[in-house]
Amino acid sequence: RISPAPFSFVFAPADLSDSTLSYTETEATNSLITAPGEFSDASMSPDATKPSHWCSVAYWEHRTRVGRLYAVYDQAVSIFYDLPQGSGFCLGQLNLEQRSESVRRTRSKIGFGIVLSKEPDGVWAYNRGEHPIFVNSPTLDAPGGRALVVRKVPPGYSIKVFDFERSGLRQQAPEADAADGPYDPNSVRISFAKGWGPCYSRQFITSCPCWLEILLNNQR
After folding, report:
1. For residues 65 and 168, which has the higher predicted lDDT (pLDDT)?
2. Could you tell me whether strands 55-61 and 70-72 are parallel, antiparallel, or unpaired per DSSP bridges?
3. pLDDT per residue over 172-200, tens digit each?
4. Nearest to 216 by CA among 111, 107, 124, 80
5. Considering the entire predicted model, what is its pTM?
6. ∠ at Cα 35 (47, 138), nearest 5°?
7. Cα 2-211-37 angle, rounded to 5 deg
8. Pairing relation of β-strands 76-80 and 114-119?
9. pLDDT band at residue 76, thresholds of 50, 70 and 90?
């Protein structure tokens, strides 16, 4: 369901250390897996005093991951390019030596970005920007369907990007690879300003200039 919703949150500062990682269709999931006891990102380091994070956010530009995984501990997090008097995951401070013109144009459209919020029924995304966002997740796809479903969310609207109940039912079914990469039953992909899939000229998420990969812990 896509619906208008007001929102106002306070967030913890982001870890803005820079790093890049090449993305391929066949290594979309495996590239983010670490062996037990190994932590590829400072934000993922073990700390007995911290509660468990409920998701991690990766920011991509086409096939390149920019910056480190951002672990989310609070119920809600803001992900933005420029948000006066706000804090969270600031994409505007993530540097990359060479950016294409299409990436620079799309980054300029991120603006206030989105708010991700973990609610009792699932994870919601609120579009705070002035341009649409495009969303795909396993629980948005039609049950038993093979076609990729990408939802367009206009500015000022929200959508439940991940449904806990539907996820539990879907994970009882055999796993399958998605049309544009390995199937991950606990991930959400969000593109800023540019859509992808059967209804768009961009067939794959990696053709989108600026997008997010939300890696959910398998916990409610």
Report:
1. 65
2. antiparallel
3. 555 555 555 556 788 999 999 999 999 89
4. 124
5. 0.75
6. 90
7. 110
8. antiparallel
9. very high
| Joined tokens for residue 215 | 């890696």
Residue 56 pLDDT grade (very low, low, confident, very high; cuts 50, 70, 90): very high
Q: Which two tokens mark 129? A: 């920007």
Distance separating the N- and C-terminal Cα atoms of the chain: 20
**pLDDT range class, residue 166, cuts 50, 70, 90:** confident
Indicate the domain borders of the chain: 55-173+183-216
Cβ contacts of 97-106, under 8 Å, gap ≥ 24: 99/61, 100/62, 100/209, 102/209, 103/61, 103/62, 103/209, 103/210, 105/209, 106/192, 106/193, 106/194, 106/208, 106/209, 106/210
Average pLDDT over the chain reads 78
d(CA 216, CA 188): 8
Q: What is the CATH number of domain 55-173+183-216?
A: 2.60.200.10
